[in-house]
Amino acid sequence: MNRATRRIQSDISAALKEAGLPPLKWYDVLWSLERHGGQLRPFELAQDTIFEQSNLSHLSKRIAAEGLIDFVELGSDRRGKVLKITEKGRDVRKRMWSIYGPMLHDRMRTFGKADGWQAFIEAEQNQTCPN
Asked: pLDDT of 83-99, one tens digit each?
């Protein structure tokens, strides 16, 4: 299962890179923000994604540097910040999904077939075992 997940993520990441789009993990951040009205506090975003808050902090800075999200101060609490998706971020997220969605659907459809898991296991064995 872990190998299947890693292979699917690797293939999708390669397709995104080939299309000139950001890394796959950026999608999770952008989609989480978009699903929650366009903005979340960092701890809320960490709870909604699989990222540790320290990793999310570094990732958020890289995403913000590309203009896909903004850091917005929360009213009078100058220490409090909200991460807010930009229009550019929404556009990039949609373009990422146009690659990510169909690839994910195609890969997962295989597992829904009666012999899907068996076919996957055999394909993995053929790729990891030298001939």
From this structure: 999 999 999 999 999 99
- DSSP assignment of 19-56: TTPPPHHHHHHHHHHHHTTTEE-HHHHHHHSS--HHHH
Strand, helix or coil for residue 11: helix
pLDDT digits (tens, 9 = 90+) for 58-67: 999 999 999 9
> Could you give the 3-state DSSP secondary structure of residue 129?
coil
Q: Which whole-number Å values give the CA distances from 97 to 61, 93, 121, in the listed order?
A: 22, 6, 27
The first and second tokens of residue 38, run together, are 């366009």
